[in-house]
Predict the structure.
Amino acid sequence: MKNSTFLFFAFFLSISLSSLAQDIKLYPTLAETWQLDSTSRTQKNEFKILPYKPVYILFANYTTNVNDKPTSINENNVVEEPIGYNNIELAFQISFKTKILHNIFGQKIGGDVWGSYTQSSRWQIYNNTLSRPFRETNYQPEAFLIFSTPYYIGNFKGVYSGFGLNHQSNGRSNPLSRSWNRAIFQFGWEIEKVQIVLKPWIRLPENAKNDDNPDIDDYMGRAELDVNYAFGRHDFQLITRHSLRGGDNNHGSARLDYSYRFIKNLKVHAQVFTGYGESLIDYNHNQTTFGLGLSLY
């Protein structure tokens, strides 16, 4: 790829991501994030693009164990020969959400319908031998219903609960196709500056013959715990997943993100991941990755 093409891509990406970062309050509370605070409840803010998951670009993302022969227990989804991937690539993620319906059960009960979209890519931009391909791109649209559930147990503050539907796929054909659908529940709490979100889920069944990854929940898990802590210009986020099974099906992962805000909404961003399921194509692949770049949220 010529340098001019890459610079155009980087410029376009920076402009697109910066539009999501406008008017973001420094480290909003969970209630503010989901427009459940007293100010937001009296306003209608449907169809406004808002940040969702972290938006970042990692210019160098190194893996200790590159997945050169992706495999699955479905025999139609097994790569027989090594592909020739490098263990350093560029990775980026864009993500946004929007409120679709406000207070669908009335002012007293509430209930807001949200939609979101997240896309993450791993780009073998430094792999000239393979003509710099995108190794993996994951597409994740979601729709969910959020309720305000305020309560206190000491310093432990309940903020919200909800449930919805999630589709995640990599949009590829066999043997590289990977996908799954889930019903996801979520619960949010705060303890002073610490935000905690628990997401257990149930995978929706599909025809065994067409299932790209029948054992994906034994690797990418059945629940996720997201813990975020921010102070000053520093932000830490730890996301863990687990299969909730023992024995040979006992698998999980952890991802730690650290960012430092240095110019308005622009941050230096570092990421460490270890375990299974760094991406869909890697759902049953164990590795540790280290990435460094920039983020906007």
Remarks:
- Confidence is low (pLDDT under 50) at residues 1-24.
- The chain has one domain: 3-295.
